[in-house]
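Discussion board: Methods & Data

I've been asked by a reviewer to show the raw model output for two of the constructs in my manuscript, not just the figures. I'm not sure how much to include, so I'm pasting the format here to get opinions. Each protein appears as its amino acid sequence followed by a line of discrete structure tokens. Is this the kind of thing reviewers expect to see in a supplement, or should I convert it first? Here is construct A:
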Amino acid sequence: MNAQPFKHAKKEMEKLLYTDLLPLNKDGYDITEDFLVRVVESLIDFLKKSNDRSNKVLDFYQPNQLREFLDLEIPDDPQPLDQLLVDCRETLRYQVKTAHPHYFNQLSCGLDVVSLAGEWLTAAANTNMFTYEIAPVFILMEQITLKKMREIIGFPNGDSILAPGGAISNLYAMLVARHKMFPNYKQQGLKTLPQLVMYTSEHSHYSIKGAGMVSGLGTDNVVEVPCDDRGKMIPAELEKRVREAKAKGQRPFFVNCTAGTTVLGAFDPINPLADICEKYDMWLHVDAAWGGGCLLSQKYKSRLAGIERSQSVTWNPHKLMGSLLQCSTVHFKEDGLLISCNMLCADYLFQQDKHYDVTYDTGDKVIQCGRHNDIFKLWLMWRSKGMKGYEKHIDHLFDMAHYMVQKINERGNRFYMVLEEPECVNVSFWYVPPSLRKMPHNREREIKLGQITAILKGKMMDSGSLMIGYQPLGNTPNFFRAIISNPGVTKEDIDFMLDELERLGQNL
């Protein structure tokens, strides 16, 4: 980093405290500048190491080991600025490098530098997002960017909001759907409702059950619909269960259609589900938290064919689009529902006689009060790529996933695909050690492979060279799920991943 020489030597930093910084020290600009530049140097060093393939993804320690050599206690006395700089460096030293090209562990991988710059600016601005009064530029950015996303979805009008994660976005969709169908509930509560029933696929995200739990419906009234062998909800099974509920006097009202399941990356068939929702007067929500980024690609947007027929959509830019965490959006076809559902008219925040157009205030649209600024990092990143750059971004991720499937198949009996030809960039597979390669693939072998998967993950983390997630799914024992959502991943990184799995697992 080509910074100007520091105005204060390291020994001086050992004597300086937070009281020497702005704003407590009105003459503390130089000290503040030195301190922040040194913090930024640590951040940039971490960024460099995260993108250096010769570095490990992590140095793993058990929790009790970390506690032994990290001082995490809150002291009575102020610590010098030099110690705070050490704290910053040590924190990053033991943090998993999620930007590393050999990190395939979560749906959110990689680190977009422009989005990072946006997050730094966001932190410096340090404002809430509930009124135009205190966040004028960010409110306008949010309005324009979310309108663009609705246009891409196929909602010509409507409304949207940024929420703290896809689980809360899905909750907002369910709450708004209930409000639309039963507006008296807002004042009168559960006593005004029939027995409501929600539907979602057996492979959907657990947040749909969570929405039933926290909203008072109860998880027993969130019905899981069977999926086919590719992980997609079966429309006929949905209709069967809707009819069963109606025969009991219950009210089916909400169907969650997953566009990109968490494990297999499956896309439920939107059009057949929309037909059923129209037939039985149910709200169709599309949880495209994972798969929504496909809408930016001409080649892959057909995976969400019919999404414009839904009433609401969750779409997380912090996943396929690569925005920094957190960045989740929820979109509604009908305008006015968000505010009608959630507004409480707190007159100490949302005065109606302000000297600007108060329809720009967003705080009464949500059940939160404080709302983090998640728009600037997304807006800046999208500006950097444009629509054309984002299409290349999405297409590259799919190209790498296809390459991985090809290379697994080329390695013959050393790997076994759980799902051939995945629809998204989730690649689900088992590593097969030499001891199991001649064994017929049956239930007994799958159980053994599931046990091997957990052991191999431990060896992987201990070596620090690679991170891939694993999980069971229904009756299928543990298997690896590699996620290709880091745009920096190359074919060489895929080859390394498979080679490293073989190296670590050869003696199992």
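Construct B, same format:
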Amino acid sequence: LVHSLTVADCCAAVFSEDLAEAILEVRDSYSKPLRLFQLGGVGPGDVAGAEGRGPVEDLQALLDKAAPTPPACAPPGYRDMLLYIYTSGTTGLPKAAILPHSRYLFATLAALKSLRLTQSDVIYNPLPLYHTTGGNVGVGCALVAGITVVIRSKFSASAYFAECAKYGCTVAQYIGEMCRYILAVPPRPEDRQHRLRLMLGNGMRPTIWKAFVDRFNIPNVVELYGATEGNANIVNLDNTIGAVGFLPQSLPQAIYPVAIIKTNLETGEIIRNASGLCERCGVDEPGMFIGLISNRDPTREFHGYVDKEASKKKVIEDVFVKGDKYFLTGDILVMDELGYLYFKDRTGESFRWKGENVASAEVEASVCAILGLRDVTVYGVEIPGAEGRAGMAAIVDPENTLNLEVLANGIDKMLPAYARPIFIRKVAALEMTGTFKVKKYVLQKEAFDLKLVKDPLFIRSGNTFAPFTNSELQDLQTGKLRL
């Protein structure tokens, strides 16, 4: 919280009663003056901080006293800054992405037109409103076009379709692992008693896609791909399983200048040819997804982050011609011969083992399917004296019901030898971001260090996984145990 206040250089914070304790806990850790406004709940009173910081102010009382007429100030411009939206922080602390009015309007209007939304539609939105999909695409349809949007303070897998039916929703939103959680709820009559004509979001796993639409009778899933700060946004409008977008190959590339370029999948380093330029990937060849930056077109601008140094890292120059600039998504995608695009992995989450590139997202999908939709995350860990990184899977198993032999047998059938996890870590829970993405940075850093890891660890042994103890650790470090 202190980090988020600091990077955005905040001068005030508005919060509800349930977040008052968190705000008051850190207010004295924030170095600059910070006005605090509480909305709702018991009056905050004169709760002052250290160094003579002001009291918490009752926002509702101030609103009641405010003049009904708008303040005398110039109207905002199309390119003026509207919001900071924080990245999810899957691999570190969040960054504050700059969102101008132009990008907010573009995202909302794109949804309105591509989904053919009308005044008769009702959108179910149980997403966090500080995220682009919920607060921009979802709520934006209400703000910009007056379409009814049903919002929920916290996502509930068991209430999802019951509430869609209750409020007569025709469109429902999802992100991240939501659909997997919903599918894990035992079947009920309400599953199909809704009026939905489509679901819209990003992160639907290909391994559950068909089972999800069949069970819940979803006519169409519209899968989005994009980043709050990015300009390389695509969409799969026709329910093609697993695709995150579609680019008709008959259209000139200049109409929508995005590309997949050749990349070292393990390091994320862009590969350049003898002329120092990048090369496009061929059909079914994975690479980095990028989007042309142009200040002459509002849809192609890159506004970056409040942190200028972080912004520079997301821009690549001299891509196809000297002097051009592209936005680096940091994601590895692949395109088939028809023009459908599929997500492979995030840069740095792919790893190389036994001379082959391993996509952690694909291994996670396989392990998840074997174990019946448990939470799982996969990452590469360094092995002493070995080239590359061995696969490690952290699996949620609070009740110790994981059958390691069944898991081993399943991954042997579904995955090639180089992609099969060598290590298993049983955890009580996986830390998630507010957008339902797993934070794996700490897990990867701790690897199989028994001084740091207190969870049960296992190593592949024959047709199962055996406990990983100090004896195995010593054998691994001395080279006696080879993987």
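Answer (T.O., handling editor elsewhere):
This is acceptable in a supplement if you add a one-line summary per construct. For B, something like: The first strand starts at residue 12 and ends at 16.
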